[in-house]
Broad specificity phosphatase PhoE (Zhongshania antarctica), 204 residues
Amino acid sequence: MTADTTGRLCFVRHGQTFANIDKVWHGQTDTELTAEGYEQTRRLGAYFPQYLRADVIYTSPLQRARITAEAIASTFELTVIHDPRLMEFDLGDWEGKRFSDLVTEGDVLEQIVHNPDFTAPNGESQNIVKQRIVAAVDEIAAKHPNDNVIIVAHGVTISIALAHYLHGDTTLWPKYGKHNTAFTEICLRTKQLLSFNKIDHLNE
C-alpha cells in the first residue's frame, strides 16, 4: 500500500491501559494509559506517515482513545474530532469488575456475546452499541467518501462495527479481537476488509 491510497477507513484501538493489564471491565470508565501504552501511541504516530496518509481523524472522547488519536494527528498536523458515539460498550454496574468475577454470575459472558439484547445492570445492550457506532461510522463515511479516515476507539465497539459491516451479525464480534494500538482497515465504499490487527509499528 502507498501513502496515496484513498477511500479507506482505519479503525485504531487505543493504547494499553491499567485496566487492560488487570483484566478489568472498564467500559466507559475513563481509565489511564500505562507507560507502555504511551510508548505504543508514540510508535503508532511515528509509523503512520510511512503507511497511509490520514485526511481526518475521529475519536472517542475517553482519554485512552483521545491520547492515541492525538499521537497520530500531531504527525499530520490535524485536529482530532471527538464523537461520543465512538465510546466503549457501557457495562453499567459491572465496570471495574475483573473478567473472572463475572464468571461467578452465571452465563453472563455467553449472554454478552450471543444475545444482542442482553444488558448489564444500568448498562447498554450490544444492539444499542451497534446502533450508535454504525450511525457514527456511516455518517463519517458519507462526509469523507474519498478520504483516508482514522477512527480511534475501543476493542468491543470496533469489533461490533466490523462484525456488522463484514457479516451483518454483531454476535460475531469476538472473532475481531485486537492488540492495543492495532489498526484495521476497510474500504469506505464497499466495506471490504483490507487489513486486520496490524501492529507493524510495535515490531520496529
